[in-house]
Amino acid sequence: MLHTRIIVAKNPEEVGKLAADVFEDVLNRKPAGVIGLATGSTPLPLYRELIKREQEGKIDFSKVRSANLDEYKGLAPDHPQSYRKFMQDNLLDHISIKPENTIVPLGLAEDVQAMCEAYEAQIEEWGGVDLQLLGIGHDGHIGFNEPDTYFPGMTHEVQLTEMTIDANKRFFDSIDDVPRAAFTMGIGTIMAAKKIVMVVTGSDKKEILRKTFWGPVDPQVPASILQFHPDVVLICDEAAYPL
After folding, report:
1. Which of 49, 141, 156, 237 is labelled catalytic?
2. Is 146 a catalytic residue?
3. Catalytic: 25?
4. What is the pLDDT of residue 2?
5. 141 versus 176: which is more confidently predicted?
6. Is 238 a catalytic residue?
7. What three-state secondary structure class fits 174?
8. Domain 4-237, what architecture?
């Protein structure tokens, strides 16, 4: 945990506001900055706050570029459970960011390798990610990088673990509808971001946070690699704080 700054908030709403402070600072210093975005319930207070702050004139997204961490394999962009649809509904449709400046891995890609390489190339063309938002899975996954014997480098296809499938079944009609594979930024892509902010809420994440930031760096806990990143801000609520 050499470089990690830790902020403990009272509740999930405060986590969102504190994370929005980080976004506001980065984007006011670099109006055409590149932000890496995440899906799930934990970032929702942050996204609501970012929408509010642009309406108040505190942030301007008109020149910002965004790249999402991941997408389910096999889901069209307009599928109700696709991550592209999630981002449109919860953030992108409500801010001034230009549609052509937002990228999400293509769930229906026929040539997976070409799509992944093009995704990396677009991020590189933009000059890299200035601020990457992360959540964390109960098994320590970031993006969809599951526990493994190594840290994957670039954007790639991944087979989802039963734990991840089970955690995501609440968003689908049944567990059988949950995709078994996804496309995700690699650990190398994530680690290349200039700054990372991780948002975590709930007592069920306490143990994995302890392993991530206070345990050994181990690909079985993918997020533990963040201990080697020079600029990480962990914002968690009191329920999730492991100490």
Report:
1. 141
2. yes
3. no
4. 59
5. 141
6. no
7. coil
8. 3-Layer(aba) Sandwich (3.40)
